[in-house]
Amino acid sequence: MSTIQQNTSKKTETISGQVIAAFGRHYSIETEHGEILSCVRRGKKSGVACGDQVEIKPTTPGQGVIERITLRTTLLYRSDAFKEKIIAANVSQIIIVVAAVPSFSEELITRCLVAAESEGIQVLLVLNKADLAVPTRAALDQLSLYKTLGYPLLKMSAQKDISVLHPYLKGHISVLAGQSGMGKSTLLNALVPEAKRATAEISEALDSGVHTTTHSRLYHIDSDSDIIDSPGIQEFGLNHIKDENLAWGFIEFHPYIGQCKFNNCRHVSEPGCTLIQAVQEGKLSAKRLAFYHKLLN
Ligand SMILES: Nc1nc2c(ncn2[C@@H]2O[C@H](COP(=O)(O)OP(=O)(O)OP(=O)(O)O)[C@@H](O)[C@H]2O)c(=O)[nH]1
Ligand SMILES: [Mg+2]
Ligand SMILES: [Zn+2]
Predict the structure, then answer these.
(1) Looking at the structure, do residues 286 and 149 belong to the same domain, yes or no?
(2) Looking at ligand 1, which residue's alpha carbon is closest to its atom 30?
(3) What is the pLDDT of residue 31?
(4) Residue 86 sits in which domain range?
(5) Atom 8, ligand 1: which residue's CA is nearest?
(6) The whole model's pTM is what?
């Protein structure tokens, strides 16, 4: 290498890393050398997410500046009319965690599914707290609809045994998502004991007005499998998904899209709508079409 080249490379010396936690405008980055640096983003830009691959420039010991995002294959986020809330980047699988107690919202599951489908993220449904035998049976019945749609559904107890989960994690960056109190952090601790994530009863969490988990954090399971614990969500806004794309968020609707009489069919009450017809013929779930209608606009 010539002297000139050496000088140039020294001047622009950056290292690559992965965002393992995002706290407002501060980020924990794990560098390619395995160090953890506390970083901010260059300039006033924000929008870096847990899971992003980034290029950073070290500043003082233990600290650095994020120069740019180098890889973002997927972005899981929610949005309302005013703002966007990023859940995680680069995830290839979303693990939607539900439990019979406290009760779960099927609409929230639906919204998670739509967000996942729109980003091409694989879905795994987990019914946790299976040790609570009786309510779990009812919850399983309720969730069987999603299994018939092709989403794998696992029943487990994060407190007792999560071995059924292991084969589903290999090679993925997974994110645990769902309502507060479903046991996401308990599951994470079972997978990565050294994580020691705080967990709490839902009542305590709600009394204090905050969810137990307040920020997303990425952990390594093995050399090619990572998992992100994320804060509980009560609302999953999908403002960023346009009405005309919404039907693609419903996996079983795909064969019908583009087959209706009208090109711009919204599948609400139009004549010649193949989705409405399929529901009438019992080929599609009326409940799913009703959720679709609820999510329109
Ligand atoms: N019986 C039973 N309780 C569980 C199980 N998993 C978690 N819990 C309990 O459920 C409560 C909530 O667990 P967390 O892991 O904090 O829930 P979370 O989904 O991370 O909640 P947020 O961080 O607020 O989103 C805690 O009291 C756990 O001990 C389980 O498999 N069985
Ligand atoms: Mg938690
Ligand atoms: Zn239609």
Answers:
(1) no
(2) 129
(3) 96
(4) 75-229
(5) 183
(6) 0.93
